[in-house]
Amino acid sequence: MFTNETIDTSNLPRFEEIPLTKLNLAYAKVIVIMLTFLFVVFIGLAIAGSVFIDEWQPFRVWIFLGVVCAIAIISLFAGISFVKKGFAFREHDVVYRHGIIATTTMIIPYNRVQHVALHEGFLSRIFGLAKVQVFTAGGHQSDLEIPGIAKEEAESIKQLLMSKIRKEL
Amino acid sequence: MQPDFSKPQRQSSIGVIVMFANVLVEYGKAMAPFIIIMLIKAGSMTALVFWISLPAVLVVIALIAWLRFRNFTFQLDDINKEFVLTEGILNKTRIVIQYDKIQQVNIKQTLLQRLISVYAVDVDTAGSVDKEASIKAVSHQVALGVKEHLMQNIRKTSVTSSEQTSDETITKEVQTETPILKISLWSLIKIGLTSNYLRTFGVILAFFLTIYENAMRVMDGTGYRHHDVTGYVKQDFTLSVGAILVAAILILFLVINLLRVVIRYFNYTVSKQQGSLLLSFGLINTKSTIVKPEKVQETFVTQNYFQKKLDILELRIKQATNGQGEKHNNAIEIPGCDKKETNHLLELLFHTIPEKGVMLKPNYRKLVFAIFLSIVVPLGLLLIFLPEEFLIGFYWIFPVYAALRLLLLTVGFFRYRLYINDRFIIKTSGAWDVTDQIIVPEKIQAVSVSQLFWHKSADIGYLTLHTAGGNLSFQLGNYTVIKGYVNKWLYEIESGDSNWM
């Protein structure tokens, strides 16, 4: 039987109210390792500079303070960035939230997805993590990358998306 | 009589001339520095040898051109649904393009091609990875034949996948080209006098800078001392001369702008062909382009104050791009239509005339931020960093600039609106050139909403709608309302099986 009932637009599912899945905690380890590596290089350079470059000598304290501040700020931002990232795969679309100063939420309906890819970074692979990449026809700006998902989960997400795309065709 | 396109075809034999010109330009570019050196050292022995051997070089180039011509074939393979090009003398290249990947088929003509009355056929694909395929010299009849054949086959394949457009197109007579719009020279003159000031200004500025640079170089060479000349110029640069100069530049500016528009868009014709729009234009190079209504992603309608008085508009259409680069190439411009013609075109593209629905205004902070960014920051930096003796006598520029900029920003702010109804999303923006950016919710590929943390309490935020032709973004609108519409659009996209391309 054919029905055509009026849709109550105020009762549509709201993307802003759905619970988002946080990134895998193992991904925090990946970030910590990467940052540690960066900081070691940073500190090494600062120490080498203040030992070997004579002009830097009088500013040693300031260089030290600057490096500490930079490390603190970068760590803080990385922490916020990690906590704020969240994703959800709904029945008909994928939702991804990210951003430190500006909170950006991006939504791609499954019937606009062109293809899906899995990407494993060197460190992520060690921790059994993968990045899900979702591509649309809208160019770079409308593509989506969700990092820090456990490998099997990412694989099943990819399968899910692939089956959704195939259904559309 | 059409040749059999299903077998590999060569180009028109007179096309050898086009090949020759292409090879000549190609090699000429590579040898340009060498040739210039030979011209300068005209008397030397090497130069003599070079000039004597030049005919031989030309013969070699002619041979290369002929071989390229011999080895270039095109083929329309209906069985595999492919357009096949083969080219190359030693390294053979075979370009294969599936029919359903073809986005546009353009027939073009450069001045040389016009002289020997041959045409180029360019086949554009959706992916940027694929090489662009181009047949460089065929007769008009063959060019039209190829285009017709390709367009028909593209239609056939797309008809099987999308049912809704098929009924209209099949019942229509094949190969009827009824011009529905012809832009008169008078309209082009109007457009030329009222639009694109900035672009032309850039061209003229670049032109004068090169002239100035060259003049200085010549004077240096002829023994004039540099500051003698500048001193002389300064002395005589009285107010009257300045005024005449400014007037002359303005007139020159208008004339160049006018010429540019007329040459580019001369004899602009829009005709309807099997449900698509066929555009052709140009004085020296005739270009023709096909616009398929279902592939249109974004439409821009632009008009400034003068153009409003003269009742002309500019229309810009963006079709789907799958690739990364060359976004600007994909915009198709239709200059100089009046209100009625514009509405007619919009009706062809959208089946109805787009209407503006519920209005969304930006928050006042948008204006404040714009003022800060484009008035306070640059002027402040100038005041701080430029030495005082440099600024003396120029302080009056600061309030003048600030006032003008403030006027533009304020007008722009009050024009900045987003209109939403069930079928169309229209963004109006611009202070002088007022543009309506029109998109249809079905064409949305992805949606982004974004909010800075200090805007949370004010409940304002950013909206970006991504389409395959580009983005539409609206800044600092009411966030709750925006989110409501996002949910509605998502519902519409996800519940329907609308065809976005």
In short:
The complex is a heterodimer of chains A (169) and B (501). Chain A has 169 residues and is α+β, with helices and mostly antiparallel strands.
| Largest two-chain interface | A-B, 32 and 34 residues
- Strand portion of chain B, in percent? 25-35%
Percent range for helical residues of chain A? 40-55%
Average pLDDT of chain A, to the nearest integer? 90
List keywords for this structure.
heterodimer, A: 169 residues, alpha+beta, PH-domain like, 2 domains, 4-stranded antiparallel sheet, 3-stranded antiparallel sheet, 4 helices, 7 strands, B: 501 residues, 7-stranded antiparallel sheet, 48% helix, globular
Any overview of this molecule?
The complex is a heterodimer of chains A (169) and B (501). Chain A has 169 residues and is an alpha+beta fold. Helix content of chain A is 45%, strand content 25%. Chain A has helices at residues 25-52, 60-84, 122-126, 151-168; strands at residues 21-22, 86-89, 93-98, 102-109, 113-119, 129-136, 144-150. In chain A, the strands form two sheets. In chain A, strands 1-2-3-4 form a four-stranded antiparallel sheet. A three-stranded antiparallel sheet of chain A has the order 5-6-7. In chain A, helix 1 runs antiparallel to helix 2. The radius of gyration of chain A is 22 Å and the shape is elongated. The mean pLDDT of chain A is 90. Among the domains of chain B are: 13-161, PH-domain like (Roll); 364-412, no CATH class. Chain B contains 15 helices and 20 strands. Chain B has helices spanning 16-40, 45-71, 111-115, 140-161, 166-171, 185-194, 197-222, 226-236, 239-265, 305-310, 339-350, 364-385, 388-391, 397-415, 479-495; strands spanning 73-77, 82-87, 93-98, 102-109, 119-125, 133-138, 178-183, 268-273, 276-281, 286-291, 296-303, 313-319, 331-337, 358-360, 417-420, 425-429, 434-439, 444-452, 460-467, 470-478. Chain B has a seven-stranded antiparallel sheet. In chain B, strands 13-12-11-17-16-15-14 form a seven-stranded antiparallel sheet. In chain B, strands 1-2-3 form a three-stranded antiparallel sheet. Chain B starts with 15 loop residues before the first helix and ends in a 6-residue tail after the last helix. In chain B, 27% of the residues are buried. At the A-B interface, strand 4 of A face strand 18, strand 19 and helix 15 of B. Chain B: Keywords: Membrane, Transmembrane, Transmembrane helix. Chain B: It holds the Pfam family bPH_2. Chain B: It comes from Flavobacterium silvaticum.
